[in-house]
TrEMBL record, chain A:
GO terms for molecular function: protein phosphatase inhibitor activity. The gene is Ensa. It comes from the Eukaryota. Transmembrane segments: none annotated. It is found in: Cytoplasm. Pfam families: Endosulfine. Residues 89-100 have a biased composition (Polar residues). This is Alpha-endosulfine. It comes from Furnarius figulus.
TrEMBL record, chain B:
Keywords: Repeat, WD repeat. Belongs to the phosphatase 2A regulatory subunit B family. The keyword Repeat applies. One of its GO terms (cellular component) is protein phosphatase type 2A complex. PANTHER family: PROTEIN PHOSPHATASE PP2A REGULATORY SUBUNIT B. It comes from Furnarius figulus. The gene is Ppp2r2b. One of its GO terms (molecular function) is protein phosphatase regulator activity. SUPFAM superfamilies: WD40 repeat-like. SMART domains: WD40. Coiled coil: none annotated. This is Serine/threonine-protein phosphatase 2A 55 kDa regulatory subunit B.
Length: 100, 449
């Protein structure tokens, strides 16, 4: 029954690709290529702009979010973090539960 | 080459042995196990987690009184290997997660292992202390200094037995050699050197020297805009200390010989399976990315894991694998949602059994799969607390792909994709496996008659 369905319809991968492109029409031209590689290389990168930070702190109304600039693919987040927002550095001295 | 220890799938019944970790409603991220590795004798089993901690279990001696009970693994040592760091110069947050642990072969009474996070490799020495000196002249038993003028006699301190203490000390720290994130470490068969691989470079280290390492592979393009592939895993040949392999995000494997050049950018062999162009889709490259590469114990084969399959390659044949096993092909029709929830980027590992006759890898829903290379039979088992009665035999699981679902089967849509088995380990000579299910470690053994 399964093989019959395969012969009639397009391969499942292509069907899934069509689904994805329907949801995200602006998905990068390069299939699974540099975009996701660059994201992988940038893991852990934290960006900080003191100008934006100080303006956010001063609660400037009607402030526009900073434009992405030439590097559209870099992940900068969509709000200006404040010290209160940042996750606490974890205490690293808790013993693993595997050893309990 | 040991034969006959249950290498045929139909002879092996896997039973629950132990489970480590707690049953929490919400899993603390730090408790997620990120690597599992037996040492070369199988006496020790190490785990690393996202919180930078290492826990080592030791197999207890088998007791003559309870011959039906195989030695269980108990906690031997635990320590904080890595801590979170922040590189202020690069604005880079460095996770403490232990990416890999690799044991050194034992050469004296102490045990040595390498553990690495994204940036720093450390050599740890784990040793036992079961005696301590007593009867010092200048200090008393509590360590307080004695007044020298009160001392009238000299005595020779003696070693007396004490409760066993296991200490872990960092003996070497190999830092500042990787711009990108370390994905692999591999101890060389010369026992003097090891390699560490990141996304774009591989470095060769001598265990004694921490302030220098040789760069042996560099695939960084002059212009980063031209970047098309990254290194995903690397391993030394088990016997030939000049040979190693590394895999890429494009599904290729390169074998390099360090005798040919100092910089092994030119491969000696290049393993790639030709792609069927009619099957090409947006997902093709992503699902072909190799997440793990492992030499067989014999050194004749390599095994690679990509998103949907495990492949075995003969070192003498570069143009295609000799065996391909489907891990969970039913996910092919779910690729869109697996891309959206990032699961398509999950990095599964794969392992050989001691005789290279069976291979194992993980899947979702806490399922893991074994493939017998000789009989071509495969089985799907599950790591779950429901099957955790001592010596309970694991029942094979089956995923149904649509149409009628039988009573014991689970449908693809009911699979829990948050329960992923990425890390497993197989004892070097016996049928004992360790399976990491998020924050729990399961140990299974074959049935002892």
């Amino acid at each position: 029954q399964d093989t019959q369905e395969k012969e009639k319809t397009i391969p499942p991968e292509r069907a899934e690709e069509a689904k994805l492109k329907a949801k995200y029409p602006n998905l990068g031209q390069k299939p699974g290529g540099s975009d996701f590689l660059r994201k992988r290389l940038q893991k852990g990168q934290k960006y900080f702009d003191s100008g934006d930070y100080n303006m956010a702190k001063a609660k400037v109304k009607n402030k526009q979010l900073p434009s992405a600039g030439p590097d559209k693919n870099l992940v900068t987040g969509d709000h200006i973090p404040t010290p209160q927002d940042l996750p606490q550095r974890k205490s690293s001295l808790v013993t693993s539960k595997l050893a309990g | 080459f040991v034969a006959g220890f249950g290498s045929l799938m139909q002879d092996v019944l896997w039973c629950f042995s132990q489970v480590k970790g707690t049953i929490d409603i919400g899993v603390t991220e730090a408790d997620i196990i990120s690597t599992v590795e037996f040492n070369h004798t199988g006496e020790l089993l190490a785990t690393g987690d996202k919180g930078g901690r290492v826990v080592i279990f030791q197999r207890e001696q088998e007791s003559k009184n309870q011959p039906h009970r195989r030695g269980e693994y108990n906690v031997y040592s635990t320590f904080q290997s890595h801590e979170p760091e922040f590189d202020y110069l690069k604005s880079l947050e460095i996770e403490e997660k232990i990416n890999k642990i690799r044991w050194l072969p034992q050469q004296n009474a102490a045990y040595f292992l390498l553990s690495t996070n994204d940036k720093t490799v450390k050599l740890w020495k784990v040793s036992e202390r079961d005696k301590r000196p007593e009867g010092y002249n200048l200090k008393d038993e509590d360590g307080r200094l004695r007044d020298p003028s009160m001392i009238t006699m000299l005595r020779v301190p003696v070693l007396r037995p004490m409760d066993l203490m296991v200490e872990a000390t960092p003996r070497r720290v190999f830092a500042n050699a990787h711009t990108y994130h370390i994905n692999s470490i591999s101890v060389n068969s010369d026992y003097e050197t090891y390699m560490s691989a990141d996304d774009l470079r591989i470095n060769l280290w001598n265990f004694e020297i921490t302030n220098q390492s040789f760069n042996i592979v560099d695939i960084k393009p002059a212009n980063m805009e031209e970047l098309t592939e990254v290194i995903t895993a690397a391993e030394f040949h088990p016997h030939h200390c000049n040979t190693f392999v590394y895999s890429s995000s494009k599904g290729t494997i390169r074998l390099c010989d360090m005798r040919t050049a100092a910089l092994c950018d030119r491969h000696a062999k290049f393993f790639e399976e030709p792609e069927d162009p009619s099957n090409r889709s947006f997902f093709s490259e992503i699902i072909s990315s190799i997440s793990d590469v492992k030499f067989s114990h014999s050194g004749r084969y390599i095994m690679t894991r990509d998103y949907l399959t495990v492949k075995v390659w003969d070192l003498n044949m570069e143009n295609r694998p000799i065996e391909t096993y489907q891990v969970h092909d039913y996910l092919r029709s779910k690729l869109c949602s697996l891309y959206e929830n990032d699961c398509i980027f999950d990095k599964f590992e794969c392992v050989w059994n001691g005789s290279d006759s069976v291979i194992m890898t993980g899947s979702y829903n806490n399922f893991f799969r074994m493939f017998d290379r000789n009989t071509k039979r495969d089985v799907t088992l599950e790591a779950s607390r429901e099957n955790s009665k001592p010596r309970a035999i694991l029942k094979p699981r089956k995923v149904c792909v649509g149409g009628k679902r039988r009573k014991d089967e689970i449908s693809v849509d009911s699979l829990d994709f948050s329960k992923k088995i990425l890390h497993t380990a197989w004892h070097p000579s016996e049928n004992i496996i360790a399976v990491a299910a998020t924050n729990n470690l399961y140990i299974f053994q074959d049935k002892v008659n």
